[in-house]
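Example 4.3 (complexes with small molecules)
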Amino acid sequence: MLAVTRGSFRVFRLLLSQQYRRRCLRPQNFRPSRTLQDFRWDRSLQMLSSRMLHTTTAQRGPIVQFKLSDIGEGIMEVTVKEWYVKEGDKVSQFDSICEVQSDKASVTITSRYDGVIKKLYYDVDAIALVGKPLVDIETESGSELIQEEDVVETPAMAREEHTHQEIKGHKTQATPAVRRLAMENNIKLSEVVGTGKDGRILKEDILNFLAKQTGAILPPAPSFQEVQIPGPAAEAPAAKSISTPGTFRPTPKPPRPAFTATDVIEPIKGFHKAMVKTMSAALKIPHFGYCDEVDLSRLVVLRSELQSVTAGRGVKLSYMPFFIKAASLSLLHFPVLNAAVDEGCQNITYKASHNIGLAMDTTQGLLVPNVKNVQLLTVFELAQELNRLQALGAAGQLGTAELSGGTFTLSNIGSIGGTYAKPVILPPEVAIGALGKIQVLPRFGADGQVVRAHIMKVSWSADHRVIDGATMCRFSNLWREYLENPACMVLDLK
Ligand code: CO6
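Answer. The structure with isobutyryl-coenzyme A bound is encoded below.
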């Protein structure tokens, strides 16, 4: 399969490599600087010149070396998650070489040259060091080499953004033609959900992504399979009666308990390392907790009425969009809760955007993507964005764009059956809320009669250095009022 691909794309690749270099050298492809969030890898296979590296062979072309360069944010090492090649394998441009993971994201590194892998420097699960080589490739004698030295500098890496390395929550699989299409349209593969086998990105995915960006309507492609999002959108559109809260995500079958004779030690790596870092920083924050309960009976009715409408538009509507929108409407009155403090707590920044993070149980573990600019979004747009984030999470494709920039967080522990929690603030944010499961419980109605009510517990945590209990309580009351009387939300929606 690989050989066929290589053969059929050989001529194309040559053309592409020329075209690619021309594109690379266009000034607009050079970014003046990279953000700290960017992962900056030395994807360039650096020529082994006498100055830099070791020997070359006359007949077969030079041996080039793939080095892991500075990736910013003080990251000095990554874990090699998977090799897609072994020593002696023939590789072509754009073939995937390996996947590495730092404490922020996974990155797939692809070849820039035709050649033969001569050396892998690390085993799977080994720690690869920044500045050290990953692989040696003996290039083909006829293949054109890009005579670049010292390509570690910013522009050289920025220009490869769409081709040789993708920054995201998981590896990118795409053919050279698809990569090229993405590159030509300035689309980052990391932002595209692949619908092919094992999440492979297809041409249709790029076209569809483009259509969504430009508003163009594409003719239906029979071979194009959308990522299945469970729920009303995928179900028969028959309207449900009031849904029964408590229909939680199916509990995954627990793995068979394993008894081992000896203790097992394993290094903490990848995203878990990020959790160690973030939670250790959170420990420095003096948290206080505040809890309440919310009667969602009206919201339960409203959602069930709207579900079939959004399903008709291909979007699943859960409770989260309402919880998030109500939070944003309330944050407008309490901007101190949508703020960030610096490390020494010397300054507080009131954030203009409501980038509301939501804890998400993904194939890669707990991640917190955020919905950007919630203050500008309708409930429907929020549902749409949530669907997109959930699809990305399920495909292991949440990337830096989705995972960074949060300003306030909600964690729906209730969706997996929890009732109360003691959430931990994600620094530099200053507040977080944990939502319990919606339970049908007896409560007294206005006339003193016992009624069935849909009750949800909420547990807030806030940074007591900058927020006091009264502020948190007032915010929570306002949030609760929006949710208990969802019609009122309509009045304040932009
Ligand atoms: N109660 C009752 N029913 C619920 C609830 C609650 N709280 N939340 C969701 N649901 C229902 C939801 O309405 C769906 O029902 P139908 O629409 O009738 O099908 C169903 O459960 C599945 O919802 P889904 O999870 O698909 O979507 P939702 O938008 O509600 O949630 C999500 C999105 C990303 C929050 C969720 O998929 C998820 O990942 N939840 C787990 C979050 C998590 O792991 N939190 C723990 C973080 S650690 O907080 C922490 C402090 C510590 C304890």
